[in-house]
Amino acid sequence: MRNDFDAFRDQVSRQVIHWTMAASGLQDLELSASSNAWTCLEKYLGIELRRNLFTAIEQLQKEAAILTAQFVAANTVPALQKVAASVVAFRDRYLRTETLVDFYGHAVNTRTNPQLGAQLRAFDLIVARSMSQLLEPLGKKNPQVLTYLERGLGASIMKAGLRLWDGTVSTAAAIKITYHNRRRPTALVHEAGHQVAHILGWNEELAAALRNGLSNYSLELADLWANWASEIAADLFAFAHTGYAAVASLCDVLSGHKQTVFRINKYDPHPTGYIRVLLGTEMCVRFFGDGPWRELADTWSQVNRLDEAPNEAKEILGKSVTLLPRIVDICLRQPMKVFGSRALAQLLDPCRVKPEALMQLEAQAGAALFTSQHWIWNECLRLLALSGLRIVTMPQRCQEFFKQQDEWMLRLGNSIK
Amino acid sequence: MSNDSFFKEEETTFIANPQETFETPFLNTPMYAPEQFSPEVRQDNGASWLEMETPFLKEFQTPEGSIPVESMEFNQFLNEMYDSTFNEALYEIAAEAFETFGDRLNAEYLDQETQNAENTRLLTEFFAPLEREFEIRLEQFKQDCGRYDLASISESELEAMMDRYQVPTGNLSPAFEEFLGKLWKKVKGVAKGAVKLAKKGIGGAISLAKKGVSAISKFALGPILDKLKKFIRPLLQQVLKFALNKLPANVRPLASRLAGKLLGKAGISTEVYEEEDETDIAATPNAETIQTEFDLALGELLFFTGEEEQETITGQYEEETEQTYENPAAAMQEARSKLVDGLNQMENGQDPTPLLEQFIPAALMAIKPVAKIVLKIIGRQKVVNFIAKFMATFIQKFIGQQNAAMLSKAIVDTGLKLLGLEIPPNTERNLASEAVASTLEQALTEIAAVPEYIFENETLLEVAVSEAMENAASAHFPPSMLRDEFHELPAGQGTWVLMPLRQKQKLYKKYTRLLDVTISPQLAPTIITFGGKTLADFLRDQLLIPQGKTIRAKAHLYEAIPGTWLSRISLSEKKTPGLGTAISDAYSRIHPLTPEAAAALFGSGKIGREVSDKFLANWNDKIAVGQRFYYLEIQGAQGAKKRSSGLYLVINIPKSEIRVTIFLSENVSQEVSAKLRQKSLTAAFKLVKRIFVPALKFIFSGRFTRNLKIITDEPQKEDFGGLAVKAIQKLLPILGKFILKELIKWISSQIIEYLKQRELEFINATTDPRDGVTLSITFNNVQMMDGIRKILRGELKDLKIPTSMPGAEVKIIPGFHNA
Fold this sequence. Notes:
The complex is a heterodimer. By secondary structure, chain A is mostly helical. Chain A has helices spanning 4-25, 35-39, 43-73, 77-109, 114-135, 186-200, 202-214, 219-227, 229-242, 244-254, 258-262, 273-288, 292-303, 311-333, 344-347, 355-365, 373-378, 380-393, 398-414; strands spanning 144-150, 156-158, 172-178. A 3-stranded mixed sheet of chain A has the order 1-3-2, sandwiched between helices. The radius of gyration of chain A is 25 Å and the shape is globular. By secondary structure, chain B is of the alpha+beta class. Chain B is globular, with a radius of gyration of 28 Å. In chain B, a hairpin with an 8-residue loop joins β3 (496-499) and β4. In chain B, strands 3, 4, 5, 6, 7 and 8 form a 6-stranded antiparallel sheet that branches. Chains A and B meet through α3, α5, α16 and α17 of A and α23 of B.
């Protein structure tokens, strides 16, 4: 008959073996994403991601080794009880690492075939390019970017530099693009805006600028806009890179029930949908002059009549509408320390993506614009702006433009090894 | 010390105690100031260009004083056949074989003989589809030949007709397709040659002329094509040997007895010979040899159409390609391995001299081309003993378990882990032994190249050995063990280790530190990479980085050892972003680390290596043992490789024609196109001028001949085919003095006129999906040809060259086309 110690030891042993083996099983990254999906990553990114994951897994395995050693040394019931407690702690630790591996594995695994792999590589590059255009002149380093497909309405980002589930720090920004927006991917640039704002400390300075710039009109309004700074920064970034295409795409995502369009939640960093769209069209007006955005703003305002908004929103939104020109100036034309005492529009001039400038680009490059590696590689962001502009302003020909966009993006993605 | 020759047989010992006069670069070791020698003054061969030696054979003339017409035609044929991109295509298929089979071609668990057989089997299978495709094309062409009236069609019509037999794209790998395309170009050359000769009634085709030109296809081309079919397998055999480093690196093919008759070298034996004045050793065989041999055989087929002669030619070519050569890289590998194994076994304080006495002769055999003198002297065992004794003293402090462990740790500490290079457990000692072996190997290579008189004087030899050991040690020992003045970089960072670390068979060396480097837009155009191109060209054209950007990169440094291919460095560097494959996209990102490039990039020329220009011609051309390279790891520069802009010049003396082919890279052609759309002709021309003017100046500097072809009909002293231009190399600066300015003027005016008149044609060409455009300008009836001929003959007195602008034809072709 075995004694209690032996029985207990067997129980603990089984659990130790189970969880330490589970930890070693994480090492096979092809369990979380197929080898084909891994090869669809640009090489630098693949190496960096694997390195990070292996570091996390190695750390877990070190802890597994300690756990095993504790178990081997435990020759009393109290010592075994301690080991049993450590098993529980290790299990939690394992689950956190597993979440990490699973998250990136899932993201990588969305590259299900070479075409999609190429498109997502093109997205990675577009995002990286959008960031480097602002970060490089400011002497900041671009993080790696991994874009992936996911269901849902809106895009999202897990920023590089954040502490992850297991305590390690992410070195690559993981940006989710939704299936429905795969062919209108300006939201990627919005998410990239979050990343640069995080790196530069832009959100805080923009919040202060909005608060200062609007407090003369209303403290409540100034606070509200300051609270929205992080999302506004990302919108500004997307606008500066892709112009009206970003505004129209945002409008299409925000269109919805009146309650949501007018909802004000002071804890939500997202500006109220109603004013967010009008802020976008105002940016277009202030930088591009007249254009289709005026029609969009009018239609938006007619569909979402302010007098139908809840009372608590009506006044503050109405006042905000009158202040939009001032807000745009604060956001885009006011020098900021994070930009080396320059304004965002000085570093990323939105006029590069005004329709006339995009037409000029097309005239300059001719038919080669969408086929030549030179133009696709060097002008991918303006191509995204141009494709987006055409898709939203000439919906009757959107199939043709989608096809054209698919083709140049595929070329771009395929040129990345 | 006696002034007599140092190595007298009766002397038993000539160095009492090497340690007394011995200096090392290591810390804590007393140093003595070496005797100062006057630096060797390089003889200026160009003291007077009027006395310049001409490469042509004046004596190869008939009694009447003229050169036989067959000989002129044969030379012209060989010159026309030569295609520098054929060598590139050969390299590419060899690289692709390694990409496909990887380690299977270097499996360490197999013995050498089994491995050789396995490699041959793998590569034969690998090349089989290529052979099959070629034979199919050739057979189709042969069958169809009878239906064409070859006698009445022009050269361009014949060429267009033959283009129909090009290999359709998509069936084979890009490297195979490229190679087959080049091979088909050779077939075209033969067909054109046959038609031309028969029309003229020349050479072997004389008998045909009697039958009438209509008999060309039936009687001449058919049998030639049949014979040509037999050439493909021997040709691929050569490629196979080339891939396995089993062709000699420094050998030029000699004309057979038949060809010799036409080349004026009738009495020359067919033995291979080594190049003279060699100071650097090529790390790998030379693809050019394969082409030249092949061209010669094709030429013979064309000029000697007798059944018996043709059989002889085919037999001879097969025989030549069956010839086996030792693999110097493998020999060095074996010598090094034995040395490392021996060092690993040694105890503290044990004398390594006997080990070195075995290593030295074996290693010298592997570097034979430069070791001719020392090999001649090496028969005297005392020389080996002297060098061995000296080297043994030098490395004594690193012999034995504890000393090796210390050295090994110091090497690891230079940054191996940061590079992701882990030392397998229990092999640390190997690292130390490899460092010592590398030091000895490099020093020996250096000693082998010293002039003969050094071996005749004890002190001079001692100094030479000492200096060679210092140089080698400064590369292979960690900076922490070296005195500051021996550091290769001011901050003394890494050291060089044999790679791959875990593999017994070593393929190259790598510096253990990555070096941060910032490349400003001002710096990039001043750094010359392969083929005379600049780093700015590379960044713009190949990495698609917009001009004017400051680049921050991490530099990986590599060094060639016997057997190193850039493509195989790239293939082995699996953990280096951007490398990891043997395809040209990757290895063409590796650049030569000359002292100039090293000084510009890293602030110290000492870590660079000077090599002769022939090792700087191209990524897929020859590289030298000891040559160093750098690869820039640039985040965000993931663009696929694009071809750089460039220029190719053909001076066809018999045709009085100069053809200039300017390739504008995708980036440049789009920029030119954009300027034309903006109606800015000046800006458009400036962009093109930036390509062709420096390229022409480079050609006439005489440094690189890769982009120049001079077609002559005059036999030359030693060289033929593609090598002819190399013989002319020294004359190029003189030729440049006479014609460069004129050439620039002519080309400029043609391009301006073209862009002005046919702007739309240019723009349309740039919308083609192929990358870049090729502008081809052919100048006809060039009057300066007599002058050029005189320059090449060395008849420079009272030379006047007419400079009137000849007529020209400008063509644009989408994509890359060489002349």
